[in-house]
Amino acid sequence: MEELPLEIWFLIIEYFSEEDLYSFIGVNRFFFNIGLDKRYREISLDLGEVHIRKLLDRISSEPQIASRIKKLNLHVHPTNAPRPVRNTGATPNKNRWLNPIRGAIKAVMGRIAAPQDQGPLDVDGMVAKLFILIPLMTTLEDLRIVPWALPPTFDLDRLFEFIWETCGHKLHRVSLCANLPRYRSLLKAKPAFPLLETLELEFSDNLFVLDPTEGDVLANDVLPFFNRLAPQVKTLKIRSFSKLDLSPLFAEAEPFTSLHTTLIRIPFNHGLRGNPAGLKEFLVRSNTLRKVTIRLTPMGLALDPAAEEPLCSWFKDCVSSPICFSKVDTLDICPTNQPGGISLLHDCVSRTFNNLTRFTVRDRYLKVEEAVSLAGALKACPRLTAFRLNILQLSGATYDAFARDLPQLRFLWMSVGEPASTEPSSSTSLETFRNYMSQRTYNDWNLWDLTIWQGGNEMDYETMLACARSIPSLRSFWGNGHMDFAPETRAPTLRPAQPI
After folding, report:
1. Would 15 be classed as within a structural domain?
2. What positions does the domain F-box occupy (predicted)?
3. From residue 228, how far is each of 91, 191, 194, 231, 253 by CA, in Å?
4. Could you give the number of structural domains in the chain?
């Protein structure tokens, strides 16, 4: 340890797993501090967790722990009663008479081992603990507060005001997830965040008694807060899983003159029903944007596919502006499943081709000919290195097009929609695809990592290996940094079977 500079040790521990790092925590002060920094850098305090009381007591009683917390996730909601333990029937019938004795012994031993109740706190108990704990978090810079499930009978105004007064001046990131009445409580103190660069707002429906004044919260509380931070925010993320109309937030927003990254994920048919043009103007005015994620899939789409028609028209109108996305290098969009969705993708490429490095297409499975056509359009993007899409079926023609038109591509992520036919003679069978690939060698393709999912599972090893044999530059599967795969010992990683 003494023979190597600290800078070298910091480089070495980057290759340690968390378990490795924790196993070294008792070796010396260097590993002790690094281990504690890693363990307590991010803390989640969830009112429903069984061990929340024990965790709060430990952090508040040991300042060296609290002072290491950089990120705090605070989930406040009513405490539920513990779930009863289900009898699995594992105890043999002949020993059932011992169960009462075992239960009595466990109860006594539990009281001896843990004389204090370690169960969930109630809301008032957690609030009292937080008044002690928050001032001890001297290096806190990232705060997420999630009170959306808390009934309005709980008054947290004083707690929120205390948090903003204590920590607001040092926060770089703030994330709030609440319904409108709770937003009024969160923003009542008119918090100021002089160092803030990342703002995340999530909106949920009010599950409790209807508040007749909640309609004013967006205009009187959220919008002024939004506009006060507009000049300094570099990353803005807005999500809504409710029927709330957020169009005034965009229509009346001040220019975000420093905005670099944005994510907008709201249902178009509810979240922008009043004035969808406001979001378009917001995107067009934000000419400093580099990374953009727009996910506006309407609610109820499965029952009403036509609900996408207004969204498709709005999106095409948006990208018709020559300055929209003109400086974007990372674009993540849902082009809709409407007939105009493909031309929308081409329009987006034509707006971003000079700078585009990463392109993600979500919620639409492309036909082979559509993927081939899109690859031809992306040929005009000399900096493109990562491409993520959904495709109906694996096809050698798609790989031919990608290798020909996107030789600089380094990362390719594909979700395959249609299950491959088990008939060898079928043009969609995996065997047909593998045979096709065995006759191809893409020497000029610089692809480094390949990810293929089908039906929520990783593609089979034989198919992945066929791709690797055809692409000499390939060195990694599924972003792992290697191509190791032992199907007889490795359990498949399950993923949702829906489009990305």
Report:
1. yes
2. 1-43
3. 63, 10, 10, 7, 10
4. 1
